[in-house]
C-alpha cells in the first residue's frame, strides 16, 4: 500500500501564529476569535471533515524581543501574542470529534514534571487517548525572565534537564499505578488497591518527586511523545524519546538529511526506526486556477509584516537582524550557534539552497518566502506536496494556514480529494487511540523498544 501522509493542522491559541501581519486580511477573524470556544469547536469539526490526524498546538511562554532589542514589533502585530493556554480548548474540541487528536506543546524548562504529568493524564482521559505532548525546551529569553531566571539556561543543558524530566514523567505514567489498581470492590469496601499504587521516589540532579501520580492510568498512559528541535542535541533527544518529531528545513533534501539522522540514531538506542514518525512544515496557497492562487499570494504578500517575521526569526534564532550596518549587508550570512534554537538560523545559512548574503537573508523575510510556500492550482499543489513527501522522507506535515479558516477550507476542498485519489491520504480514520492510529504496536501504550516502557510495573499489555 502507498505510504500515506499524516496531517496535522499547525495551530496556536494565540492571536496570530506564523501569518505575520495577516490579521489585516479581510477574511480572517482569528485574531479576535482565538479566545472563543466556538472558534475552536468549529475548527475541530472542519479538521475532522478533512480527515486531519491532529491539531498541533505550538506554544511560547514569553514575548519575542531579540529583534531591535524590543517587544514592540511582536506586540504590535500580535506575533504569537496574546497567547492563551492551549490545554483548555482541547476537551471542547474532543467533545465534537471522534478521531481528531491533539498535540500540545509544553516546555520542560519551566513547568515542573509532576503537574505536567497530571495535565496530560487528564487530557488523555478526557479525549479517550487522543493526546500527544510536544516536548520543547524553549528559546525565548523573556520566558526565562518570566520564570525567575536572569538568563536562559544554556541550550544543551536544557536538553539534559529535559532528559531527566522525561524519566520522572515515565515513572509517573508507567510505574506509579499498576493495571487493575482500581478494584471497586463493594464487598470489601475497597475502591483502589493501595498495594498497586506506588510512590516513584525520584531523586535526581534537577527533580525530586515522591509520588504517587495523582491520576489513574489513562488509555495511552504516556501520551504520544512529540518533539520539536533540529539541533544536534535536539536530534539526539528525539532519537531517544520521540515517537513523532517535528523538524525544520528549507528544502526537502535538507529535511531528508535530518530524518535519516534521527532514524539512524534511534537504531543506536535500540529502537525500531519505524516507530518514529517525522513531520515538517507545509504552507500552501491554492486557488481553483493558478491565476487565482497567484492573486491570493500577491494580496497576502502585500499585507505581510516583515517586522513581525524578523521578530520571530530573532527570538527563535538569537540573531538580531536589526544590527547589521550598511557595509555588512554584502557579507555572507553565516551560521552561529546561539543559546536560542537551531532551525530558523540554519534555514537561512547552512541549510539554505544557496549561500546568502546578509541582504539576501533579510530580503527573504520582507515578504512571504516563495521558496517555502506552494502556490498553484489544486493539481500543481498536490504534485508539489507529493514531491516533498517522497524526497524528504517524512511521514507527514504540520500544515500552516495563512488565513484562518479560509486556507484550511481551500485545502480540504481542493487538495485533499486529489491526494485521496492518488492513495496518498486516508479516506477514513483508523479506530483507536492516537498511538494506535499512528502505529501498529498492537496496543495503546508505549512499545517495548521505547525507553519509557522500561519503567513499567505490573502492566498486562501486549506489545509488538
Ligand atoms: C519545527 C520546530 C518547531 C518548534 N516549535 C516550538 C514551539 O512551539 N514552542 C517552543 O517553545 N519551542 C519550539 N521549538 C523549539 C524548541 O523550544 C526547542 O526545544 C529549542 O529551541 C531548541 O531547539 P533546537 O534543538 O532546534 O535548537 C520548535 C523547534 C522546531 C525545530
Automatic annotation (TrEMBL):
It comes from the Bacteria. Pfam families: Bac_luciferase. Gene3D superfamilies: Luciferase-like domain. GO terms for molecular function: monooxygenase activity; oxidoreductase activity, acting on paired donors, with incorporation or reduction of molecular oxygen. Keywords: Flavoprotein, FMN, Monooxygenase, Oxidoreductase. Transmembrane segments: none annotated. Belongs to the NtaA/SnaA/DszA monooxygenase family. NCBIfam families: FMN_nitrolo. This is FMN-dependent monooxygenase.
Amino acid at each position: 500500500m502507498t505510504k500515506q501522509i499524516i496531517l496535522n493542522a499547525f495551530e496556536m491559541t494565540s492571536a496570530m501564529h506564523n501569518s505575520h501581519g495577516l490579521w489585516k486580511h479581510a477574511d480572517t477573524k482569528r485574531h479576535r476569535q482565538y479566545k472563543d470556544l466556538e472558534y475552536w469547536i468549529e475548527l475541530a469539526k472542519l479538521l475532522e471533515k478533512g480527515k486531519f490526524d491532529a491539531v498541533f498546538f505550538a506554544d511560547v511562554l514569553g514575548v519575542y524581543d531579540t529583534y531591535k532589542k524590543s517587544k514592540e514589533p511582536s506586540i504590535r502585530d500580535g506575533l504569537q501574542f496574546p497567547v492563551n493556554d492551549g490545554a483548555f480548548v482541547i476537551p471542547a474540541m474532543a467533545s465534537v470529534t471522534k478521531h481528531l487528536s491533539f498535540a500540545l506543546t509544553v516546555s520542560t524548562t519551566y513547568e515542573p514534571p509532576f503537574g505536567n504529568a497530571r495535565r496530560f493524564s487528564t487530557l488523555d482521559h478526557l479525549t479517550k487517548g487522543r493526546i500527544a505532548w510536544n516536548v520543547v525546551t524553549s528559546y525565548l529569553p523573556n520566558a526565562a525572565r518570566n520564570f525567575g531566571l536572569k538568563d536562559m539556561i544554556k541550550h544543551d543543558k536544557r536538553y539534559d534537564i529535559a532528559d531527566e524530566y522525561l524519566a520522572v514523567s515515565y515513572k509517573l505514567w508507567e510505574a506509579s499505578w499498576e493495571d487493575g489498581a482500581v478494584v471497586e470492590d463493594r464487598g470489601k469496601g475497597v475502591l483502589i488497591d493501595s498495594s498497586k499504587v506506588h510512590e516513584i521516589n525520584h531523586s535526581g540532579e534537577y527533580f525530586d518527586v515522591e509520588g504517587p501520580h495523582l491520576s489513574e492510568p489513562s488509555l495511552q498512559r504516556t501520551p504520544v511523545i512529540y518533539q520539536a528541535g533540529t539541533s544536534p542535541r535536539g536530534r539526539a533527544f528525539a532519537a531517544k524519546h520521540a515517537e513523532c518529531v517535528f523538524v525544520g528545513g528549507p528544502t526537502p533534501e535538507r529535511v531528508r538529511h535530518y530524518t535519516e539522522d534521527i532514524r539512524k540514531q534511534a537504531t543506536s538506542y535500540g529502537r525500531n526506526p519505524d516507530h518514529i514518525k517525522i513531520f515538517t512544515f507545509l504552507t500552501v496557497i491554492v486557488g481553483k486556477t493558478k491565476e487565482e492562487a497567484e492573486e491570493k499570494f500577491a494580496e497576502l504578500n502585500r499585507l505581510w509584516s516583515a517586522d513581525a517575521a524578523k521578530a520571530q526569526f530573532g527570538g527563535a534564532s538569537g540573531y538580531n537582524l536589526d544590527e547589521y550596518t550598511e557595509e555588512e549587508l554584502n557579507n555572507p550570512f553565516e551560521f552561529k550557534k546561539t543559546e536560542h534554537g537551531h532551525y530558523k538560523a540554519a534555514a537561512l545559512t547552512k541549510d539554505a539552497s544557496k549561500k546568502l548574503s546578509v541582504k539576501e537573508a533579510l530580503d527573504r523575510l520582507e515578504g512571504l518566502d516563495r521558496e517555502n510556500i506552494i502556490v498553484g492550482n489544486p493539481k500543481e499543489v498536490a504534485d508539489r506536496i507529493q514531491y516533498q513527501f517522497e524526497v524528504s522522507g517524512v511521514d507527514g506535515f504540520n500544515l500552516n494556514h495563512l488565513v484562518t479558516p479560509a486556507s484550511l477550507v481551500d485545502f480540504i476542498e481542493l487538495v485533499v480529494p486529489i491526494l485521496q485519489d492518488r492513495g496518498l491520504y486516508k479516506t477514513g480514520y483508523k479506530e483507536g487511540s492516537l498511538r494506535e492510529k499512528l502505529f501498529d504496536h498492537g496496543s495503546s501504550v508505549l512499545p517495548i523498544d521505547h525507553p519509557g516502557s522500561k519503567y513499567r510495573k505490573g502492566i498486562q499489555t501486549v506489545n509488538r
